[in-house]
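Feature request, filed as a ticket because there's no other form

It would be nice if the structure record came with a short human-readable summary line next to the tokens. Right now we just get the raw output. Example of a typical job, pasted below so the devs can see what we mean:
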Amino acid sequence: MLGREDQDVALQVVVNGSRYEFFIEFRDKLIQSPELLKRYNDLKKSCVSLGVDEYRERKSNFIEQILGLDRIRC
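Raw output as currently delivered:
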């Protein structure tokens, strides 16, 4: 079991060579920087009351800022 029953768990699967490989770079940045990980987790917690579209938009903006990308869609 992956955690407690009251915890949500999400997995991201990325195919090598796909347009979503930027998630691997983002993951690596989160692993390397506890401060960045905290900022990302704080962002996700602040979005609890938002709808899915607004949550994805804010998450995409954050990832774009960190990776210096023009436009992605999570």
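Something like this underneath would help us a lot:
The radius of gyration is 13 Å.
The chain is about 55% helix and 0% strand.
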